[in-house]
Fold this sequence. Notes:
The chain is an all-alpha fold. The chain has a single domain, classed as Up-down Bundle (Growth Hormone, Chain: A), CATH 1.20.1250.20. It is built from 19 helices and no strands. It has helices spanning 2-15, 17-29, 31-34, 37-47, 51-79, 82-98, 106-120, 125-135, 140-169, 171-193, 221-225, 228-256, 262-287, 292-299, 302-311, 318-331, 334-346, 351-380, 384-402. Helix 15 (302-311) packs antiparallel against helix 19. The radius of gyration is 20 Å and the shape is globular. Mean pLDDT is 84; it is low at 205-215.
Amino acid sequence: MVEHKASAAAEWRGHFMLPVAAALGYATSVIHIYGIGPYIQPMAESLGWSRTQVTFGVTIATLVQALMSIPVGLAVDRYGPRALGVGGVLLSASAFALIGTATGNALNWYLLWLLMAAATLPVQATVWTSAVASRFEASRGLAFAVTLCGASVAQAIFPYLGARLIGTFGWQQAMAWQAGIWIALAFPVIFLFFRGARDRPRGGGKRIAAEPEGVVDGLSFAQGIRTTTYARLFLTCLMLTFGMVAMSIHFVPVLTARGATATSAAGIASLIGLASIVGRLGTGFLIDRYQARLVGGSVFILPATGAIILLFSGAGGPGPMLAALFIGLTLGAEIDVIVYILTRYFGLRAFGALYGALLIALSLGTAIGPLVAARIFDQTGSYDLFLWTTAGLMLASSAALFSLPRPPRAE
Length: 411
């Protein structure tokens, strides 16, 4: 344990800014997902569309991501993450700003979201976690937690920032302002500090030829995807994102449909992001010390409780806030657990490609869940059926993790 602590401290001394830069990059990759919530209602009213039509843009972007996730993972394995991530941050934020130019024409809308989809390909989670995994071994769980806190930051900041900017500028100009503010905050840090072991060092020298010890161990892509463990991880990813992302995107509309104001609903929704920071860091600490399958299986029960609380609470009071906290704690743990399990069960030899294949499930869940939630509301005038479905899926994902065998290497 003393040796573990010493090596973990050495990793943080040498690369403490890398997970921070990666976190900002990961936040940028979900600006169109976690940032779209406050825009759904004003977009629908302005364009004369249903919420399903508006939400379909997210579906387009995530389906494209699903199709391209394995090629992106292979590119990360081949060229290193920095080559994709730095430019991708500028592209994805700019594409988000361009969505504000929507005219109400369906073809225009779909083309804007196809552009958004293409722009987010170089900033997929594979890019940021690959760099961190190459630098951290003893403290990989906590390093992943800091990196993936980027989504927590996005969930905490983007809905509230969007709601305030919409109130000041209207939804179309607000998107450009939101993108510009985020580029100014995030890009300098990413440019200066985001560099994995496989990337070129500062000064333009050659990439490191010899990888750090342990970086290229593990199963090949073909070996990994044939295992039952990988199949269970794939199903877990699909069920998790179907419910969790949809609840995050529609949390504000769920509360406004029950009578809350947009600003108060966005304020409560910000608790999801804040709680997810606690969930990520706490989970990262725990999975460095206990079996990740047991930690994750326990945490994934929480959003089922949150969904049930929303079903039986009104627009105000402690109920929605408690639900937001439960959802946030799991939102903070979900990807951390999956990525950590992937590295411990399969190694880093084909991490980019194997995680890219899991991103198919993550992207499909992200694409379908919000659309189903919007469709249910448009058809029934209520989110109740969606919340019951989410509760069931969360319990099933928990059971899938509990069923995993012990890892082939010590956790």
